[in-house]
Amino acid sequence: MAGRERASVFKRAFLRAAVPVERGVDAVKTRLGNRFDRDDPLQILPYRGYGTPESLHLQGRVLQDEPVGAAGENDSLWKNVANTWKRFESDEVPFARVRVRVPGRESDATADDEGYFHVKIEPPAPAAGGWHPVELELVHPAEPGVRATGQVMVPSADAEYGVISDIDDTVVETGVTKRLAMARTVFLGNARTRLPFKGVAAFYQALVEGVQEGGPNPIFFVSGSPWNLYDLLIEFMELQGIPRGPLLLKDFGLDPRKLLKTGTREHKLGCIRPILDLYPNLPFILIGDSGEKDPEIYREVVREYPGRIRAIYIRQIGEGRRSEEVLELAKEIRDEGVAMLLVKDTEAAAVHARESGWIRPEKVPEVQEEKIKDETAPSPTEVALKPG
Prior knowledge:
Layout: H1 3-36, E1 42-51, E2 56-64, H2 77-88, E3 97-102, E4 105-110, E5 116-121, E6 130-140, E7 147-154, E8 162-165, H3 179-188, H4 200-209, E9 219-226, H5 230-240, E10 247-250, H6 256-259, H7 264-278, E11 284-289, H8 294-304, E12 309-315, H9 321-335, E13 339-343, H10 346-355, H11 363-375, H12 380-384
Parallel strand pairs: 1-7, 8-9, 8-11, 9-10, 11-12, 12-13
Antiparallel strand pairs: 1-2, 2-5, 3-4, 3-6, 6-7
Helix pairs in contact: 4-11, 8-9, 10-11
């Protein structure tokens, strides 16, 4: 038996053994929560959604936990660790029922065993381009006053194109290919200690603005990061001035349905395909990095959706064999009429976007200026590792 086959067999055997363990842990957490955490508030966490004038799509989760507050400028290492623990030690409310309302219409959504829910609601009148509030109320388990407001984006009818971007090592520096560095960033840092890919906010804002008058171009963020980090990523993007868009993250667990059938490739394709299907007349620009499988995933998208992808920008992570592989993929995709650029910084991507007529010429100096500013910022390690 080959090494890869043995690893696959071991992985499946491990997961078969781990699933009942995870279920047992969840059951114990529920019993302990019922005994000791009765005072923890129930909360609805809506995730930014997207839709069309005829239908609005929204996801969220129901938890029984104290919410994690916004990061402070002087938060210590220990507070960051405690907040990370709270995010991952979430007490989900299985099979909760949430009432979803827009003016003139309401619908109910039932959460799954992990507390996640998804709803599609059709407004009585077509929704205009922009962000639309969606009111949420917990109806089971019944507890008065548990409400939240979600936001759903409907692209403008005159949008020039859409943008789909990875997050880890594309928008925010996480060191995803170096597990120790990534763990340090995730567990010891917060939204203020993370650093963006240099110049990314200005570049993404230029893409969202486009070159024509009219509504903004929609932007979507797709990542293999867990939903547990949703609030941290949202706060980070707001602090950095990155344009607002839906975040599509991943449910982590030991269930084989989540790990064996929804690896990074399957997860990202499972997020990207519905976006392209929902907006069949909208071309897209794809942005990722070379650290994992973004180039291969985007090549598959190009082949599945001919004529829909304008360009692909891949941030170069390291040198050597991987860069050569990405350049080979770029040749394949170029033969199909799509440019894939392997870029070391955002400025190179901005120059190509300007030359292609997708951003305004005056935006390139803004990207260059922000890139220089980001390069002089302190590293997350310098800030996050202060014990305090």
